[in-house]
Design brief:
The protein is of the alpha+beta class. The protein has one domain: Lipocalin (Beta Barrel). Helix content is 16%, strand content 46%. The chain has two helices and ten strands; from the N terminus they run H-H-E-E-E-E-E-E-E-E-E-E. It has helices spanning 2-16, 21-27, and strands at residues 29-37, 43-45, 52-57, 62-70, 76-77, 83-90, 93-99, 104-112, 116-120, 126-131. An eight-stranded antiparallel barrel has the order 1-3-4-6-7-8-9-10. It is globular and about 50 Å long.
């Protein structure tokens, strides 16, 4: 009986483990920040956002992030600025390595599904995003 329980517990643990490869397909899209938990424990909730993040993953390796300003007609305004990144799976985690003319940094995807994205940066600040749903006024 103990062997059966042990096998069931191990099966449950391994089936619930997160495979970072499965995160890649969900990172792509329009994301609205929901909250930030700073490394000191302070948590900031965002109820209204003027900008959203558009994350584009091209070939499971390369991508970019842009800040977008949604409009009421369902379209977006943005600048030509974008942050280019490379995706890498290392140590069972999905990392985004950014490179701009001004800086280089790394972020780690803690969780990604069709509705939420959770990322931690090098300062150990955790960003929780929700999938952006545009508001259209007709």
């Amino acid at each position: 009986m103990n062997k059966i329980v042990s096998i069931l517990v191990l099966t449950l643990l391994f089936s619930c483990s997160k495979n970072p490869k499965t995160f890649i397909e969900h990172v792509d899209g329009y994301w609205e920040i929901e909250s930030v938990t700073l490394s000191n424990g302070f948590r900031k909730e965002y109820t209204v956002n003027k900008t959203i993040d558009f994350i584009s993953v091209k070939d499971s390796i390369n991508g970019f992030r842009k800040k977008m300003n949604p409009r009421f007609d369902g379209k977006y305004e943005t600048s030509k600025d974008k942050e280019v990144f490379k995706l890498k799976i290392e140590n069972d985690s999905l990392h985004l390595y950014y490179s701009t003319a001004f800086s280089k940094w790394k972020e780690t995807v803690l969780m990604a599904n069709k509705d939420q994205l959770k990322i931690v940066n090098q300062n150990n600040d955790v960003y929780l995003y929700k999938r952006f749903t545009p508001i259209t006024v007709e």
